Amino acid sequence: GRGIRGATSHCLGQNFAKMFDITFENATGGRSMAWQNSWGCTTRTIGVAVMVHGDDIGLVLPPRVAPLQAVVITIPNTKMSKEDTGRMKETGQKMTASLLAAGMRAKLDDRDNYTPGWKYNHWELKGVPLRCEFGPRDLEAGHCVVVRRDNRAKETVKLEDLPTRLPKLCEEMQADMLARATKKRNEAITTCTSWDGFVAALDAKKMVLTPWCETKESEELVKKRSMDDGEGGAAKTLCIPFIQPPLEPGTKCFVTGAPATTWVIWGRSY
Question: What pTM does this model have?
Fold first, then answer.
C-alpha cells in the first residue's frame, strides 16, 4: 500500500522566482516574476528498480538499462595444456567481440586468480542480465552455456549464434521482468467504491483504486480519516491512471458522496 515518487512533473509557480529574484521582461516592457515547472527522472527511479526486481542474491537489472548486458566467463582448469588454455582465452575474446559487434554491452572475465563460483557470484551481485559460461568441454564442442540472471534458466548456445541469440534473450528477459512487475503491482491494487474497506485495504498493504470527486477538501478528509482509523499513517493520492476504468453515470465519490469525476489510486508513501 505504499508508493514512491519517481519521474514526476511539478508546477513550481513563482516560489523560486521570488526566492532568487528570477524575472523577465514582459510584453509591456516591465519586469515580471517567472513561472516555473520542473520535470525530472531522479535517482529514486534506480532505487525503485532495485526494490522491484532485486533478490536475495543481489541486483537484477533490466537488460535495456543494464550498464553491462552480458559477461563471458572462461573456466580453465589445471588439466588443460598451455595451448588449450590460450585457445580458450582467445575464443573468449572472439565471443566478446562478436557480442560487442552485435550492439550488446559485453565484457570478458578471464581472470585466473578467482574460481568460477566466485566470478558467478560477483556478476550476479551486480545484476548482469546474461552470463556465458565457457569451459573445456564447451571449447571442444563449440558452444557455451548462457544463464539468465532473473530466473537462473540455462541454455546451450553455439558460439556462432551468440550475436543473434543473446540480443533476443535480452528482449525476452526484459518482457518477462516487465510482466512480473506489472502482475505484482496489479495484485497490490484493490478497488473500493465506498469508505467501507478502504482503511482495511491500506492496512493490508494494498493500494486502493476509488471513484473520486477531485477536490482538495476531499483529499484532506481522506488523509485525516485514514490517519485516525488506520495503523500505518495517512493515505494520499498516488496517481490518476491514464487507463481509466469505465465511470458509470451517477457514480459517487467514495468518501464524500459527491459526483465522481475520475478514478484515482490511493496509498501511503515511503
Answer: 0.83
